[in-house]
Write a structure and sequence with these properties.
- By secondary structure, the protein is mainly α.
- It has one domain.
- It contains eight helices and no strands.
- The relative contact order is 0.15.
Length: about 170
């Protein structure tokens, strides 16, 4: 992949991260522009990105992540391809898990949220009840994290690791 493509992805991820941190939302026009740019620059690889979006879409339907988070995953995998994209998204999920764990521990909500999650999974399998996992009106904003920011930072960390490995050769 050429440096210009990585720079374009870096610009989009920076904008995604800033929007997610400041407002908790990401512009649908920005995600559409990123997907369109990915189609222009990385036609074949964007198929993997679209597949990633389809695979994560059920988590949006259950309200375990936002629609913009699914689109950010599709953009990352589409620009980077399946292997590098999976590493970047995986790193972002690890960052998100650490941030979420810290937040839940600091606010004393870990036991409550784990209990709720286990009850939710039990309802899904025993009652075949598929209701949203997270509702802001019911749950508040305290348990949520800016996942798109974490995904963006995870991608940045992967870029940094690749650069350090290349520099060390």
């Amino acid at each position: 992949m050429c440096l210009g493509t990585e720079c374009a992805l870096g610009v989009f991820l920076t904008l995604f991260g800033v929007q997610d941190l400041t407002s908790g939302r990401i512009s649908r026009y920005l995600t559409a522009a990123a997907l369109f740019m990915g189609l222009l620059l990385r036609r074949e690889a964007m198929a993997a990105g679209i597949l990633a979006g389809i695979l994560f879409f059920p988590l949006f339907l259950l309200r375990m992540m936002g629609a913009a988070d699914v689109k950010v995953i599709a953009v990352i995998v589409g620009f980077l391809g399946p292997a590098r994209g999976a590493a970047a998204v995986g790193t972002g999920f690890v960052l998100g898990a650490v941030w979420s764990l810290e937040r839940l521990l600091r606010k004393g909500m870990l036991t409550q949220r784990l209990s709720y999650f286990l009850a939710y999974i039990r309802r899904m399998f025993t009652l075949k009840s598929y209701e949203p996992y997270y509702l802001a009106d019911r749950d508040g904003t305290e348990p949520s994290i800016p996942l798109a920011f974490c995904l963006s930072a995870g991608t940045g960390l992967c870029f940094l690791a690749e650069a350090l490995c290349a520099f060390g050769r």
